[in-house]
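Renewal narrative, Specific Aim 1. Our central claim is that a sequence can be written position by position from structural information alone. The example that follows is taken directly from our test logs and has not been curated for this report. It begins with the structure tokens describing the chain, in the order in which they were read.
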């Protein structure tokens, strides 16, 4: 591994040492710590999203605040569907307050809805009791394992680029390394949770694939808007949206799967 890659790995590891406990504790406890974390993360994700749309300073902060505050209030008063709708309404209101009525008022609102859904589903998943807690922690493990081994295998093994038109760094070796590691680590963890071996491994592989898909989708969005990262808040990772893009896809898959199983 080249020196630059080693330096990047060291920075990413140091950031992870701070971020992992910050995510694990609220995920374990649920309740207001998780609600606070999701609200803050939602605000930051919204800010980075609007920043990508070309808005700067208050022009990004105010609609992000409207989306986060509106979504949070609506959830506890009217439920998950209202939270997503009100997040969009809050973003529109924030834009009107800052910019007045413009022809580009709708720009980026679809992204607000698509980003709000996984955050709501994450909360819904955790609120289903101990099973939801265990599934959320398992999902975090699989997503982090996929990200870590995709990075390591991509940097060490290199090889052919995955989709160079979207991402100039992601490789096939990183893809297969990440998914293989997800199947091994997530499969073993799933067996410990009581899943049949085949179900545990297959589920982990699916979440690993969702994680990489989320990363690629966000890479395509960033390429469309001409930026490498969504922010600079997290050393070695970029913005919060850069860090959670795979998780948003992974937790959506797990939450929907649990809803289907419970409804069957």
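The sequence written for that structure reads:
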């Amino acid at each position: 591994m080249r020196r630059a890659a080693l330096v990047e790995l060291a920075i990413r590891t140091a950031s992870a040492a701070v971020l992992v406990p910050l995510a694990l504790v609220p995920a374990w406890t649920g309740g207001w710590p998780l609600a606070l974390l999701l609200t803050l993360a939602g605000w930051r994700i919204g800010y980075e999203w609007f920043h990508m749309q070309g808005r700067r300073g208050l022009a990004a902060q105010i609609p992000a605040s409207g989306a986060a505050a509106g979504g949070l209030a609506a959830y506890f008063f009217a439920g998950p569907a209202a939270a997503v709708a009100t997040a969009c309404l809050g973003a529109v209101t924030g834009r009107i307050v800052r910019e007045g009525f413009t022809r580009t008022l709708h720009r980026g609102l679809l992204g607000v809805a698509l980003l709000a859904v996984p955050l709501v589903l994450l909360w819904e998943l955790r609120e289903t009791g101990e099973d939801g807690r265990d599934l959320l922690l398992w999902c975090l493990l699989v997503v982090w394992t996929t990200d870590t081994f995709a990075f390591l295998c991509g940097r060490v093994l290199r090889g052919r680029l995955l989709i160079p038109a979207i991402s100039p760094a992601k490789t096939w070796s990183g893809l297969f390394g990440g998914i293989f590691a997800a199947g091994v680590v997530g499969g073993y963890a799933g067996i410990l949770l009581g899943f049949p071996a085949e179900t545990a491994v297959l589920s982990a592989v699916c979440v690993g694939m969702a994680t990489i898909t989320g990363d690629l989708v966000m890479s395509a969005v960033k390429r469309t808007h001409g930026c490498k990262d969504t922010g600079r808040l997290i050393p070695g990772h970029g913005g919060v949206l850069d860090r959670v893009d795979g998780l948003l896809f992974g937790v959506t898959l797990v939450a929907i799967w649990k809803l289907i199983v419970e409804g069957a």
